[in-house]
């Protein structure tokens, strides 16, 4: 079978099968609609013939009532088919959208990092939106338009073979002319879609960066870019509108010509006494109806081409699989666990290694402070522990169980993380804390808030846990956002905690709260702290100094702190507040030493 056809059928059967009853009903509604549409002109034809022949009034009234009844029924069927049409299309596309979102979430970070958010939205929503038409109208409408066209031509032949031949030839020519015109219009429509996508992308990016744009006085630059985009859009829009209008006029003229031809033949046949005046009216009415299936068929054929491109892209996405194979093992209980990194080598691309032969072991319940310059590989190390990537060599184990043997879901549930960049959603405080898990009772949430020291903040909320948090945590200070993230992790009760400490400075009161929250959170858990302040490092049992993806020092904090030859000792001696400043001071001192030598 032709591959595109196979693809269409697979997609249609996957998403239409579950709602086959509605599909059958829709097909029946469309066919009945066609039947009624063709029946009414016949009734009017008989009405005219009876009236001309001065037939009985009761017969005329009967025809009239029948005509009205059919018109009403036709409207009812049209409402029903529109409802079914929309229902079928949205059910199918929503299911496809959910499947794609679930699939994308299962893909590894390599996939996500090489694609922009805009591209993903376009893939999940844009392509699926374009398919809405495919699911409901395209196939059924194409079929019904073909049936309608065929029926009209058969009825023409039934009334007169001359009319039948003329209208069949006219339909063929009209179809070809319309197809050719549409082909001309497609490139400009594509260009228009491209420029609108760029424009809205530009707009959303600038609107989300309003604060930075204003603060840096970049308003004029943004307005200039805005103007440039609009001035690019305008001529394309004008051309597209011009082509659209000319297409409308040409197709109108085409069908006027068709009607003239049809009526001329019918008039000649009437004058020869071969047709009644009623039949001439029926011919006129069918000629008028002819434009509908012809225009629809060529529109649907073009849509099919567009749908083909979308289906191809959707299939491509569905055929992309995560490089991470899920395991089957589960981690039970929330006790602290040991972490082992054994000879880990990793690079985001094979030719650019980031971590080199990293080995260390952290006992259950111990706290490891990881320090290193920006870009040393600290975050990368954490990503490996979460199994967002797999190392190219070596093995990571939790309680001596290798990560790839564990279910990803189970592994990630056991690790809680608080990053510098707290992700808060435009949702209630409750949903932000439970991450939309309705099974967590409010008492547990309130307990978490009180443990983290957020009770006074909670009491200040007018609607308690139902209070809304602005998008991206608007209305909260950096410290409050961090504390909420602590409470979130506390509720999840993980075995391991990763703390990527915020480098920004907090006010002393919030700082005290954060310190208290950290103390509470770390109890009875294995912890990995990416420390930016030397004060935080004082919590660590062990210290790992990372330099260019290699461990330059690893050991007990107390021993390293007392060893005058250790790098950690030197860091502490610098008297700086942050790790970065101390590391830089250390490096500067090393360089001066070397220069002296
Ligand atoms: N997704 C990625 N794709 C490619 N390279 C990356 C990616 N993320 C990080 N890197 C590179 O890996 C190296 C280590 O980055 P990483 O973020 O682990 O450093 P870090 O020590 O956590 O730095 P920071 O303290 O600034 O967060 C850097 O050279 C960085 O450019």
Characterise this structure.
The protein contains 20 helices and ten strands. The chain has 597 residues and is of the alpha/beta class. Among the domains are: 156 residues, ABC transporter type 1, transmembrane domain (ABC transporter transmembrane region fold), CATH 1.20.1560.10; 258 residues, P-loop containing nucleotide triphosphate hydrolases (Rossmann fold). The protein has a six-stranded mixed sheet with strand order 6-7-8-3-9-10, with helices on both faces. Helix 5 runs antiparallel to helix 9. The longest helix has 53 residues. The chain is elongated. The model has no long low-confidence stretch (mean pLDDT 83). Bound molecules: adenosine-5'-triphosphate. Adenosine-5'-triphosphate binds next to helix 10. Keywords: ATP-binding, Cell membrane, Helicase, Hydrolase, Membrane, Nucleotide-binding, Transmembrane, Transmembrane helix, Transport.
Write a brief caption for the model.
The protein is 66% helix and 11% strand. The chain contains 20 helices and ten strands.
């Amino acid at each position: 079978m032709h591959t595109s056809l196979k693809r269409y059928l697979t997609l249609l059967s996957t998403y239409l099968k579950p709602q086959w009853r509605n599909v059958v009903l829709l097909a029946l509604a469309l066919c009945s609609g066609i039947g009624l549409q063709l029946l009414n002109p016949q009734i009017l034809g008989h009405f005219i013939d009876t009236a001309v022949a001065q037939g009985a009034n009761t017969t005329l009234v009967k025809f009239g009532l029948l005509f009205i009844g059919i018109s009403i029924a036709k409207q009812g069927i049209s409402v029903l088919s529109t409802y079914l049409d929309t229902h079928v299309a949205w059910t199918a596309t929503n299911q496809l959208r959910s499947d794609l979102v679930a699939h994308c979430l299962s893909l590894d970070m390599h996939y996500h990092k090489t694609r922009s958010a805009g591209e993903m939205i376009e893939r999940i929503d844009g392509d699926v939106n374009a398919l809405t038409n495919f699911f409901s109208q395209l196939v059924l409408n194409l079929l019904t338009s073909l049936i309608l066209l065929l029926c009209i031509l058969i009825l023409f032949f039934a009334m007169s073979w001359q009319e039948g031949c003329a209208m069949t030839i006219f339909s063929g020519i009209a179809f070809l002319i319309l197809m050719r015109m549409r082909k001309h219009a497609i490139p400009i429509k594509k260009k228009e879609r491209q420029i609108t996508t760029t424009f809205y992308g530009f707009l959303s990016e600038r609107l989300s960066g309003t604060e930075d744009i204003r603060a840096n006085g970049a308003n004029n630059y943004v307005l200039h870019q805005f103007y440039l985009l609009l001035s690019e859009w305008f001529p394309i829009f004008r051309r597209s509108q011009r082509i659209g209008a000319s297409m409308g006029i040409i197709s109108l003229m085409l069908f006027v010509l068709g009607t003239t031809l049809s009526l001329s033949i019918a008039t000649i046949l009437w004058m020869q006494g071969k047709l009644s005046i009623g039949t001439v009216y029926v011919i006129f009415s069918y000629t008028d109806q002819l434009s509908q299936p012809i225009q629809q068929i060529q529109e649907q054929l073009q849509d099919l081409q567009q749908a083909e491109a979308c289906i191809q892209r959707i299939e491509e996405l569905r055929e992309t699989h995560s490089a991470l194979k899920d395991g089957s093992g589960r981690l039970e209980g929330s006790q602290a666990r040991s972490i082992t990194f054994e000879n880990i080598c990793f690079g985001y691309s094979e030719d650019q290694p980031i971590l080199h032969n990293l080995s260390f072991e952290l006992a259950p319940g111990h706290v490891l402070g990881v320090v290193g310059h920006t870009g040393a590989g600290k975050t990368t190390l954490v990503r490996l522990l979460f199994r967002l990537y797999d190392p190219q060599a070596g093995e990571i184990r939790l309680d001596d169980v290798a990560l790839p043997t564990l279910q990803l879901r189970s592994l990630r549930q056991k690790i809680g993380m608080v990053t510098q960049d707290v992700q808060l959603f435009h949702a209630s405080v409750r949903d932000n804390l439970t991450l939309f898990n309705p099974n967590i009772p409010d008492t547990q949430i309130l307990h978490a808030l009180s443990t983290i020291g957020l009770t006074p903040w909670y009491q200040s909320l007018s609607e308690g846990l139902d209070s809304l948090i602005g998008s991206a945590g608007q209305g909260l200070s950096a410290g409050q956002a961090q504390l909420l993230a602590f409470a979130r992790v506390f509720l999840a009760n993980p075995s391991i905690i990763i703390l990527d400490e915020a480098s920004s400075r907090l006010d002393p009161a919030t700082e005290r709260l954060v310190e208290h929250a950290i103390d509470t959170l770390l109890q009875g858990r294995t912890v990995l702290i990416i420390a930016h302040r030397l004060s935080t490092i004082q919590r660590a049992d062990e210290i790992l100094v990372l330099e260019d993806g290699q461990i330059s020092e690893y050991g007990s904090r107390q021993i390293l702190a007392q060893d005058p030859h250790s790098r950690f000792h030197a860091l502490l001696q610098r008297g700086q507040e942050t790790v970065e400043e101390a590391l830089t001071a250390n490096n500067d001192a090393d360089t001066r030493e070397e220069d002296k030598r």
